[in-house]
Write a structure and sequence with these properties.
By secondary structure, this protein is mainly α. 51% of the residues lie in helices and 0% in strands.
């Protein structure tokens, strides 16, 4: 996404994030933080995902920098709870209604 100035936001700031993690989590080894950020970059994790996940990890007293490695490009989608079953039923009913060319568009009509 671009800002009004034309820059892509959020702007990557790995050095600053590593410094924040080092101060926030003195129990973490700085080379481990650096290694985790490099691994995320190599794995094509977006900067927004890195920011989100590192913030979560820094707040978790049990977390370690290496936990960032479990963050892949689609990891945060997998953590989302699945939609309730009625969502699929409503979508299927809407699709059936859209596909039928007759005038009966009630979602639970069977043809």
């Amino acid at each position: 996404m671009s800002s009004a100035t034309g820059h892509t936001v959020p702007v990557p700031a790995r050095r600053e994030l590593a410094a924040l993690a080092t101060v926030t989590r003195p129990d973490w080894n700085p080379p481990d933080i650096h290694e985790a950020l490099v691994a995320a970059h190599i794995s094509q994790v977006t900067w927004g995902q890195v920011l989100t996940e590192m913030g979560r990890l820094m707040a978790d007293p049990e977390a370690r920098p290496s936990d960032l490695a479990t963050t892949g490009p689609d990891a945060w989608r997998r953590r989302r709870p699945p939609p309730p079953p009625e969502t699929a039923h409503r979508g299927a009913a809407a699709a059936r209604a859209a596909l039928h060319t007759d005038h009966d568009t009630t979602p639970d009509a069977t043809h």
